[in-house]
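FW: tagging you since you asked about this chain on Friday. Here's the raw sequence from the shared folder, copied in full. Didn't touch anything.
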Amino acid sequence: MDRLDLRSGVSLQQFKGNHFGYLPYIKDDALNAYVTANGLNKYYDSDAVKNDLSAYIKAGFNITESLHAFADAQYRHVGYTTDGYNDRYYVNANGTTSKHNLDIDKKYNFINAKAGLTWIKGGHKIHALAATAGREPERNNFTDNGTYPAPNPEYMIDYEAGYGYSGSIWNAGFNLYYMDYKDQFVQTGAVSDIGEALTTNIKSSYRTGIELTAAVQPLKWLSLEGNAALSENCLNDFDEVIEDWRDKYAADDPKMEQYKQDYHIDGNGDKLRTIPHKGKTALAFSPSVILNGFVNFSFGQFKATWHTGYVSRQYLDNSQNTDRSLPAYSLSDLSFSYTVPMKKVFKSIVIGADLNNVLNARVATSGWVYSAVDEKDGFTPDNRYYQIGFIPTAPFSALAHLTLKF
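HL: got it, structure written out here
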């Protein structure tokens, strides 16, 4: 048998672009004439270049006929530069405004590596691996966060182990994992001057759980499949940031300096309260239970699949408060197709349709939340004022499709 399989490669990518926007119209005619006297007003303008160089080596080694070892390593260099000014303005303490100037010149180096063992024999399969990876901040981590500190790269160490069995008409398996994060990008609760949720690095967080799969084919034309993901997704010692509606002090008020020391002031001059959460706090938009079930039918050239999925409760912020969460929901879909064999021009024609949300469930699959405190009016950190919005899924819909295979 061939004992060693060795591969390597190199990749180089570059993004180069200009981010800009014009103010085409101002309602006040006099002001519009003044602003556009020399042409359209460019209210933001920045050049950006991102270079991404990577090289990898990947090896597999057959220790025995049943036991296989694998390892790979990737070196990745990212260089990111941008200058100019952003589409944001900040209110200074004296009431004047300032542009958000961009002067970013960052370089990142990552070593992404993975190693593990796989044992396969008689339908049984056991695997174990460890991996590490890092990723750079995205552009909006710099441009949206404004006065926040420059973001750090995010790092993760992943440990996994699992078992699977494949029989003549059925198979099943599980995979255990633990993902340990450093400086994961997480929404803090603060928002930008135009209402966008801001993210910052959280020192310690993790995702851990078990993934289950199973399938059985009792009849030639019928198969049943299912999978489940049961997880815990948490932040450790998380400091949440929310708005405090306490009256602002005037710029010349002698209490202003102490006010600035006691509270973080954002780009609009709004006061933000830091609320510490000790211990574990559930990550927003991270359901702990995801279930999927499939019923597959196959009669000659006709195929159909019924799918039902379930997603458990998701928190819309990182305070782990059920008042500010997305309720669990379930959706069902049906798809079917018929393949017409052809001898000329096309190999085959596939006619099909997808029926989405066939039970016409009225559920929300995403949402947003805003919360604030104002203790003089009874809105404490544990009893906040909040607004919540749900983004509903579409009701029953149908989509037909035609595929021509050459």
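FW: The chain has three helices and 20 strands.
HL: agreed, and The CA atoms of residues 111 and 192 lie 33 Å apart.
FW: great, closing this out.
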